[in-house]
Every structure is written in C-alpha cells, then in structure tokens.
Amino acid sequence: MTRASRLLRLLDLLRSRRRPLTGARLSERLGVSLRTVYRDIALLREQGADIEGDPGTGYMLRHGYLLPSLMFDRDELEALTLGARWVSLQADRELAQAANDALQRLASVLPDALRLEIETSGLLVPNHRQQVPDEPWLPTLRRAIRDEHVVAMHYVDLHGNSSERRVWPFAMAFFSHVRLMAAWCELRQDFRHFRADRVLSLVDSGQRYGVRRPTLMRRWRDQNAYGSRE
Q1: d(Cα 214, Cα 220) in Å, to the nearest integer?
Q2: Rounded to an integer, what distance in angstroms lies between the CA atom of residue 67 and that of residue 101?
Q3: Can you tell me which residues the record assigns to a coiled coil (predicted)?
C-alpha cells in the first residue's frame, strides 16, 4: 500500500466510526506501526483534516469532512445496501469485510435520514453460509484474477481424478450452493470451469498470463460461456 493510499484509508476509517479509534486499532487495521499512525495523523492535520483526539483517548474525524460530491436516491441506496449485505454473507472473509466497510463508509457521509434508511433497511439476504465452504485461497484467486496471474492448483475432478493444473483464471461465479472458477487450462488447452470445493490447494505463480483478461472473457463468451466443467 502506498503512503497516499494509506492516508486515504486512514481518513476512511476515522470517518466511518462514530466513536474514537485508538492508535493501536488503527495500527492493526492499516498494518503499520503505531509510530507511523501518529505521523500520518499529524500530516493529515497539517493538510487540514479536522481530526479530534489524542493518543490517550483515540481519534475521530469531525462529521462533515470530505463529503462526497454525489448523492444517491432511495432506490440506489437500497440496491447498494442489498448488494453489500449479499457479499458480506456469500463471499470470502476479506471481501465480506470490505463490503461491510464500504457500507459503513457510505453511511458515515450521508445525511442522518438517509443513513437511518441504510441501517434499518428491510431488504435482507438469507444466510446460506453453512452450505458453501469458506475456501482459504479465495482472496489469492481474486487477486490473481485482478492481476492476470497464472495460478497453480491441485484439483480433483468430477470422477475423483487428482491432477496438478496451471490455469489462467479470469472470472469467479458465486452461486448459492457452489463457487465456480472460469479459466484457461494449460493442461487441456481449452476453457474449463472448476468447482471451488474440489480445489485442494492454490497458489499464485506471480506470472502474467499471455492474453489480457478482457480478451479471454470475450473468447470464452464466444465459444460457450457454459462449456466444459471438471
């Protein structure tokens, strides 16, 4: 994380909470030392951020600082709330936390009446979390898709055959009962769909695959978006 990104993240953390956050908590959330947190807070104050508090009581950002330049209507807010709630229940833990953080960040900069609508929304998502295993490698796969990296995995197919694969992942589908990865398989030299619950291990090779992800997506759709599954 660059320093600029860290400072923006720090502002988001302070803005999304109604009570002071301690330096230790900020240090944990940002993944930096306590001394770095104090330096960043001092820098933000120098730049005009209205941050209240001290090391003994914690810190918070005065309400109203850096209000967004756009506003949402009620239907848009309901759509965002429902989507974030779905992700918080169906995605991996890192993405679920990101969804909750995003919703809190949005609520923190809205007028009180609209913030109340988010907090008391009657649009609910059934919790089917127990039906879908929480694969520990999902965050690695999401980053590999984003960075267009080849991944190596140990996979067991529909017939119980085990194999080592190198694939080019470009999409992940989250169904209510299973998660599917769409990828170009180097072994099969074709597009394949892999069930997440049959992946025994997965690592990011750090190598870029030879075709840009949008191109893979287009070829996959043109060939057959519901093609071979293993």
Answers
A1: 10
A2: 17
A3: none
